[in-house]
Design goal:
Blueprint (H helix, E strand, L loop, with lengths): L24 E6 L3 H8 L11 E6 L8 H9 L3 E3 L1 H5 L5 E4 L12 E3 L31 H4 E2 L2 E2 L3 E4 L2 H10 L7 E3 L3 H9 L3 H7 L7 E7 L6 H4 L3 H8 L5 E7 L1 H7 L1 H7 L1 H5 L3 E2 L6 H7 L2 E4 L3 H8 L3 E4 L12 H8 L9 H15 L1 H9 L6 H13 L24
Parallel strand pairs: 1-2, 1-4, 2-3, 4-5, 5-8, 8-9, 10-11, 10-13, 11-12, 13-14
Antiparallel strand pairs: 6-7
Helix pairs in contact: 7-13, 10-11, 14-17, 15-17
Length: 411
């Protein structure tokens, strides 16, 4: 890799004479991919308006792997340090949604999950072998993830649920002293958005006589979109346009790996047929707050949809092993499966009936977070403890998500 030229840095000693605010504590936000960046974006409001803090960003993979990661970083409008420069800089706190890059830094670190919490999946076995793939541990709480040469890779490990602490004690007890059960800040922001459902529905183009159906897919060949390339076309063809507005939400890794142009190209016919596609960085929570129904696979978005109160119809994704007592496993047990050989509209009605009679939203909310409504407070307390600063007196912000800005149809 060619060394990138260093930039003027508000946290660097050599550029100190340029600073307007001096004596600040430095926070590095690590963004190896857009998924981690989106989760860490929920943490940044917890330290906003604090003149004692300076935030900078970096990609621990040097910007070589994910073009979308670079675009996400620069869209934030913050100072982005080239990775060689970040490795040689000193920070008072590192915020990470992945373990990538942590071994190259010596600073207090807060590690948060970048999906619906740790401990969702069992190790996956490819169909042609009985041996688990190496380094494909499903929980994210194993020693190979959390330790390096016997040293803990993060000073604080944010868990969304008490269940994860039990799992951590079994898989990597050395990490228990760093564990903090904070709840799920993504769920808290989604919950705070629900009172504004009407605003999101109007932003998605809903008319008074329509209902919203969100179609969502995670990434990988086993995902709904991986198994059914015509997923969106078939939903649009089956649902009357005067009754339903179809909204698409694809995992950011699909956009990052294949490129925004390719995604728009693949979905060109669906977009011309009326699909409303939300961008990968944001918009999916607004879509879930607006949704009447969600058709989705085993990804975290489907679980958040159930927690938000949407009627969920599951796309069958055989071969994805789920841990018991997780939101995904509970949803797989209680939500109806979509049948591609049967009409879709009656299946949506069955999903709605199941939601109303089985208490699915309440169940999934309990499994997503052990500290509902408290994540911002607990995460901020942890961040300021690691920074060695007193917490601000201002209230912890838990703001609704912004209005969605749908992706434009290709020309």
């Amino acid at each position: 890799m060619i060394e990138t030229a260093w930039v003027r840095s508000p946290v660097g000693r050599t550029d100190r004479h340029y600073a307007t605010r001096r004596g600040t504590k430095s926070v590095l936000v690590l963004v190896p991919h857009p998924v981690a960046g989106a989760r860490l974006s929920d943490l940044l409001p917890l330290i906003e308006a604090d003149h004692r803090i300076q935030v900078v960003f970096a990609d621990p993979e040097g910007g070589d792997n994910w073009q979308a990661g670079r675009a996400f970083l620069h869209a934030q409008g913050g100072v982005v340090l080239p990775w060689p420069q970040a490795r040689r800089s000193e920070f008072d706190l590192v915020l990470a949604g992945s373990t990538r890059g942590l071994d190259d830094l010596a600073a207090p670190t807060l590690l948060v999950p970048h999906g619906g919490g740790f401990g969702q999946y069992r190790p996956w076995r490819p169909p042609d072998t009985a041996v688990p793939r190496p380094r494909r541990h499903g929980t994210g709480l194993s020693p190979d993830q959390l330790l390096r040469e016997g040293r803990l890779r993060a000073d604080a490990l944010a868990l969304v649920h008490d269940r994860e602490r039990v799992l951590l004690a079994r898989e990597c007890p050395q990490a228990l002293p760093a564990a903090v059960v904070t709840g799920d800040i993504t769920l808290d922001r989604l919950t705070a958005s629900l009172p504004y459902r009407g605003h999101y529905r109007r932003a998605l183009g809903l008319t008074a006589d329509q209902e919203i159906v969100v179609v969502t897919s995670t990434w990988s060949p086993r995902s709904a979109f991986g198994r059914h390339p015509d997923l969106f076309d078939r939903v649009l063809a089956e649902l009357p346009g005067d009754r339903f507005r179809v909204v698409g939400a694809l995992h950011p890794n699909i956009w990052a790996h294949h490129g925004a142009w390719q995604v728009r190209s693949w979905l060109a016919d669906a977009l011309r047929a009326g699909l409303v596609l939300v961008p990968p960085e944001d918009g999916w929570r607004a879509a879930l707050a607006a949704a009447d129904y969600v058709i989705g696979d085993y990804g975290s978005v489907t679980c958040y949809a159930a927690a938000a109160g949407a009627a969920v119809l599951l796309e069958d994704t055989p071969g994805q092993p789920l841990l018991e007592d997780t939101p995904a496993a509970a949803l797989a047990r209680h939500a109806p499966r979509r049948r591609h050989d049967r009409p879709l509209t009656p299946q949506l009605a069955v999903a709605r009936e199941g939601r109303d009679t089985n208490g699915i939203p309440e169940l999934i909310r309990r499994l997503l977070s052990s500290r509902p409504g408290e994540a911002g407070h607990l995460l901020r307390r942890t961040m300021y403890r690691l920074l060695g600063l007193s917490e601000p007196a201002r209230a912890v912000p838990v703001s609704p998500v912004p209005l969605p800005a749908p992706v434009a149809m290709p020309v």
